[in-house]
Specification:
heterodimer; A: 312 residues; alpha/beta; Rossmann fold; 8-stranded mixed beta sheet; 12 helices; B: 418 residues; 2 domains; 13 helices; 41% helix
């Protein structure tokens, strides 16, 4: 774990610069800043259609001070595969240069990942393309005006689910883990040092790495800008968003989530949901049902971990 | 000249290979650095042959990406080209349609990507045979589009394409199209040039810094493709692509001349190839394999005393407007034969519509007869093409159009229906 002193040092260097056009309290910005602190300047970023396309700055202004490529919605993982292949070609042709140290990073929203981008992502994962694919998950199409995605949670109001979403959130990290990836991790923007450490680890691993970050969106979630760290922290505390790593198939709960295996350590789900306007139409019955589903998910997780331990 | 060419040819390695295999050999000769592909009939043997080369270690340092869709293929090629490598892919019909979003992207990003199309008819109903509607659907994407009419031309045109596309004044992508099965799966002798000669002919592979205008380099961080407001340079960027097409016409001619000097094979002025047009009164313009067969039809009718000629359109984009105007001036009647559709256009075929547009304001009184034929691989035989010439001759002599014209277009070779 990174010490406070180290964290302060890490915190100094910025790669996604001030003056970008994110909303106040944007979770994406926290996620990208801390990911880049871990990856450093020898990184090329590919982003599909998403808020990130816009917040990097309108032409000719640009906030990232590292190579950055905008891409079509469904195409980020594939484009990154091509970039990574080109770096490999160049590393071979020009040995001892920066090319062998390059990291190819995708930073995509939940729509670009769990919906339109899933084919390309699945392809890159199956090929084990040497990239880090990061989904910053604000749980709807925020850039186009808060429409539901397959990552939108049950009951959330969006502009296309005005009564609250009927279906449940797609569990993409687990789908990615099923691709037999060397590294899968979940993060929350409320835990920047956890983001830092997980990207550091991902950078050191060859092959396709997948990191899924819960990223708050004040206008999309119906929260105040100053709550954009507190609310995702509640998602972690209630166990609604679980922080873990799956390294070569081995599941490990991260520091903030591990104690929550004990149900008494988990804050009630309502603490997280009631603070957000997007859940304002949840009925009492649905709230109870969601708490039951969450408890069941945790007991399955406990079973999985004990089974894993038994087999080791 | 002919004897000199024969001499050169006899010394060289000739293989009897299918058109698709010629395309694979061309990619290998061009030392492409990143290949990305997804299988589709009738393109498959291009990428199979490249796999074979790669697996045998004959393409050291080349990355071969086996993608999960054509959309991802072009996305990966865009990524690899942006990062400064020479790239290659191949597709057909539906695959090109699925790729289409990224086709626009590649041109907008000004990347010198070369892609071959084994053309096939669009579905439904399912069709896998020669029909250029696929590549012609990319008319307005900013890509250059050429047609190869024979096996050797597939190999040669791919080599020329890299020289044209990678020219620092051009930097645009290009399709090389040829008929599915008619060329992709038939075999003919093809000269595979010596590697050192190809290396001399082509520009060097991009250096460490990548292309002059575009790169992914941490020492020179650059943002690619971010949002531009209507008041920004969007219109001007688009106009630059148009100007580059105009500029490319001369570049294509120059490269064609250089190619002839180096390898002894010529393709007209690069944009069009004329055949027996000196004293022709009537002529037909074709593209792809039927342009080559038309030369035999012209020979046969010349033996019968007809003053006929034919024209091979090598480039659809950029469109050789000046050449078409000059050609039209030479004859009284010009047939324009499309193996492609342009539903709802002024004529039934896409190229005949272009020819008519090119002639507007040129003061020509030449009669243009649009012909549509051979869609979805329907056979167009030598006799049928000879008959087309006779129809044009009849039009020239009597002023009578064929009886079964449909809305100004001669749909040749339709089945009889009640």
């Amino acid at each position: 774990m990174v010490s406070i002193k180290e964290a302060l040092e890490i915190g100094q260097e910025e790669f996604f610069l001030a003056g970008n056009s994110t909303c106040a309290g944007c979770g994406l910005e926290i996620a990208l800043r801390w990911a880049m602190k871990a990856l450093g300047p020898n990184t090329a970023l590919v982003t599909p259609a998403s808020c990130l396309n816009v917040v990097v700055g309108l032409w000719p202004k640009t906030a990232p001070n590292f190579p950055f490529m905008n891409m079509a919605f469904a195409a980020a993982a594939a484009a990154a595969t091509g970039v990574s292949a080109a770096f490999e070609v160049k590393a071979h042709r020009f040995p001892g240069k920066v090319w062998e140290k390059m990291t190819t990073l995708v930073f995509a929203g939940d729509g670009g990942t769990t919906d339109i981008g899933i084919q390309g992502l699945s392809g890159a994962a199956e090929r084990n393309s040497n990239i880090i694919y990061c989904c910053y998950d604000n749980e709807a199409y925020m850039n186009t005006g808060i429409q539901r995605s397959s990552s939108t949670p049950h009951g959330a109001i969006t502009t296309t689910t005005t009564l609250g979403k009927e279906r449940y959130k797609k569990n993409l990290p687990r789908i990615m883990a099923a691709h037999d990836l060397p590294y899968v991790a979940t993060c929350s923007v409320s835990e920047p040092l956890d983001i830092y450490e997980k990207f550091k680890k991902a950078k050191s691993i060859e092959g396709c790495k997948y990191i899924h970050i819960l990223a708050s969106c004040p206008p999309g979630w119906g929260i105040a800008s100053e709550e954009s760290v507190e609310i995702p922290r509640l998602a972690v505390k209630t166990g609604s968003w679980i922080l873990y790593e799956i390294e070569n198939g081995v599941l490990k709960l991260s520091k903030k989530s591990k104690p929550l295996l004990d149900p008494s350590k988990r804050a009630p789900l309502i603490d997280y949901l009631s603070r957000q306007k997007r859940f304002s139409k949840l009925s009492e019955k649905t709230l109870i049902e969601l708490q039951e589903r969450l408890d069941l998910e945790w007991s399955k997780l406990a079973d999985e971990l004990s089974c894993q331990e038994h087999n080791q | 000249m002919v004897e000199a060419q024969q001499d050169i040819i006899q010394k060289k390695e000739t293989k009897i290979i299918k058109g698709n295999i010629a395309a694979a050999y061309a990619a290998k000769s061009a030392r492409v650095q990143v290949i990305s592909a997804y299988p589709i009939t009738p393109q498959t043997t291009v990428v199979e042959k490249l796999s074979e080369f790669a697996d045998k270690g004959e393409m050291p340092g080349t990355q071969y990406l086996k993608m999960e869709s054509e959309h991802s293929v072009m996305a990966s090629i865009i990524g690899a080209s942006t990062a400064g490598t020479r790239t290659f892919t191949a597709t057909s019909g539906q695959g090109l349609f699925y790729m289409y979003e990224m086709v626009h992207w590649a041109a907008g990003a000004r990347l010198p990507i070369v892609t071959t199309i084994s053309s096939r008819g669009p579905a439904p109903p399912w069709n896998i045979w020669a029909d250029f509607t696929d590549v012609i659907s990319c008319r307005d994407t900013g890509w250059m589009i050429s047609f190869a009419s024979g096996h050797q031309e597939i190999y040669d045109d791919i080599l020329m394409s890299y020289k044209i596309c990678e020219d620092h004044d051009i930097l645009l992508p290009k399709f090389v199209a040829y008929g599915g099965f008619t060329l992709s799966h038939t075999s003919k002798p093809v000269i595979i040039e010596e590697q050192e000669d190809v290396d001399e002919f082509l520009p060097p592979l991009p250096d460490e810094k990548g292309w002059p205008h575009i790169f992914l380099d941490p020492e020179r961080p650059m943002m690619h493709g971010n949002l531009i407001m209507p008041s920004g340079f969007y219109n001007e960027f688009r106009l630059k692509i148009h100007f580059t097409h105009t500029l490319a016409k001369q570049k294509i001619k120059d490269v064609s001349t250089e190619f002839e000097k180096k390898f002894g094979r010529s393709y007209g002025n690069g944009l069009v190839e004329e055949y027996k047009m000196e004293d022709a009164e009537i002529a037909v313009l074709n593209y792809g394999e039927l342009a080559m067969q038309m030369e035999d039809a012209v020979d046969d009718l010349r033996n019968e005393g007809y003053k006929v000629g034919c024209v091979k359109l090598r480039y659809f984009r950029p469109f050789p407007t000046e050449e078409i105007r000059q050609i039209a001036k030479k004859v009284k009647v010009l047939g324009v034969a499309d193996r492609a559709t342009a539903f709802g256009s002024p004529t039934g075929g896409p190229v005949s519509s272009e020819v008519l547009a090119a002639l507007y304001g040129s003061g020509t009184s030449t009669i243009i007869l649009p012909i549509v034929m051979g869609l979805g691989g329907r056979e167009v035989g030598l006799e049928q093409q000879k008959n087309q010439l006779k129809v044009l001759n009849h039009l020239n002599e009597t002023g009578e159009f064929p009886k079964d014209m449909i809305e100004g277009t001669f749909w040749d070779g339709l089945l009889e229906v009640d």
